[in-house]
Amino acid sequence: MSKPTDLVQGTLDLLILKVLANGPVHGWAIAQRIKQMSNEVLQFSQGSLYPALHKLEQQGWIEAEWGESKNNRRAKYYSLTRAGRKMMAREAAQWERLSAAISLVVRPA
Predict the structure, then answer these.
(1) What's the whole-model pTM score?
(2) How far, in Å, CA of 19 to CA of 24, rounded?
(3) Which of 34, 45, 61, 90 could form a disulfide with 84 if both were Cys (CB 3.0 to 4.6 A apart)?
(4) Which CATH fold would you assign to the domain 8-106?
């Protein structure tokens, strides 16, 4: 049986965009927020998170700026662009349709 995180592999972009919808956040905090919001079910390694952030930045959905973290360390803060907000809305709607269809199949009749 697959782990819950295996199912979410294709949805990491959407999760990142949803976290960034609340304002600029650095990478480690994005991972922690996803973990917290999912009741610690969804956890991503740096090896999957940072390539996803880089891809989203190349696509123009997020932008990055260097800043200082709460513990006085240099950190790259990511924020959502206007195009990213539009993509987030499309991806969220697609996810809702997909998860509803899966629920129809999985739930007992």
Answers:
(1) 0.85
(2) 9
(3) 61
(4) Arc Repressor Mutant, subunit A (1.10.10)
